[in-house]
Specification:
Number of helices: 9
Radius of gyration: 19 Å
CATH topology: Rossmann fold
CATH architecture: 3-Layer(aba) Sandwich
CATH class: Alpha Beta
Strand order of the largest sheet: 6-7-8-3-9-10
CATH superfamily: P-loop containing nucleotide triphosphate hydrolases
Largest sheet: 6 strands, mixed
Length: 264
């Protein structure tokens, strides 16, 4: 479902601020894989996610989504294949529009728009049913402005909107980092439920080692623009923080700076 082949990216090449962000990265995701990506600041995890999303072009290499080469597609065209949830709960929704209007926009993503009546009763009922699955009571607040929702409610709504039209690939960019621990745990629970029920292929970037180990069926760790650890299946199920740090030290040839990761 995702095939990243030998991609590289350098920011500000030839200047004193040159940064080699990605170095010959290879990553293949099968349909239904839920991969967590962890690493310290500057490891390249968010850069890889943004490269897949088309935020910037890569210097070399190719990116395929669902068998389609999207390497040279701009971000707005690549969005037809992707669902994405950002770190900031304020991103991904229109604050001055109500819940059902936001969901209508998400449902119409990539479709031609006409002058027909905006939201049908049948559509409204579908939104109510979808919101009910979140367990947050939002199905009774569909006329409320999204800007009035809490961070956790908004992030859960964004997650639902990103998967309303089943994407080839769901990208989660530290989508619980700005939430308090209790709310973050709820959003992660909703995330796992949606991914499982829709059999989505997903990639979740996180700083939290505990979440990276607990969520999904595969874990990769990045360091200095490279993937240095890749575990899945039974090995991931049995993984502990100590195991992960040991794998990193063996692969990277240096001790992991635990202070750069959130170990809570």
């Amino acid at each position: 479902m995702l095939k990243i082949s030998h991609i590289a990216k350098t920011f500000n090449p030839g200047t004193i601020t040159e940064k080699k962000a990605l170095l010959d990265v290879d990553l293949h995701l099968n349909e239904g894989d839920f991969v967590t990506v962890i690493g310290g600041n500057g490891a390249g995890k968010s850069t890889m996610l943004n490269a897949v999303a088309g935020v910037f072009p890569v210097d070399r290499g190719t990116i395929e989504i669902g068998g389609v080469n999207v390497t040279n597609l701009p971000e707005f065209k690549r969005a037809a294949y992707l669902g994405r949830v950002f770190q900031d709960p304020m991103t991904g929704t229109a604050a001055t529009m109500n819940i059902e209007e936001n969901m209508a926009l998400a449902l119409r993503r990539g479709r031609p728009r006409g002058l027909r009546w905006g939201i049908t009763n049948l559509e409204r009922q579908m939104y109510r049913e979808q919101l009910h699955t979140l367990g947050l009571g939002l199905e009774d607040r569909m006329a409320s402005k999204v800007g009035l929702l809490s961070g956790g409610q908004r992030q859960a709504l964004t997650l639902l909107m990103a998967t309303l039209r089943t994407p080839k690939l769901l990208l989660l960019d530290e989508h619980t980092a700005a939430l308090d621990p209790k709310t973050a745990a709820k959003v992660l629970e909703i995330t796992q439920k949606i991914v499982d029920e829709q059999h989505l292929t997903a990639m979740m970037v996180t700083h939290n080692m505990k979440d990276a180990i607990a969520i999904g069926n595969r874990l990769i760790m990045m360091n200095e623009g490279r993937i240095v650890v890749d575990v899945s299946g039974e090995q991931k199920k049995k993984l502990t923080r100590a195991d992960l740090m040991g794998l990193f030290e063996k692969a990277a040839g240096k001790e992991l700076d635990g202070d750069r990761l959130l170990l809570s």
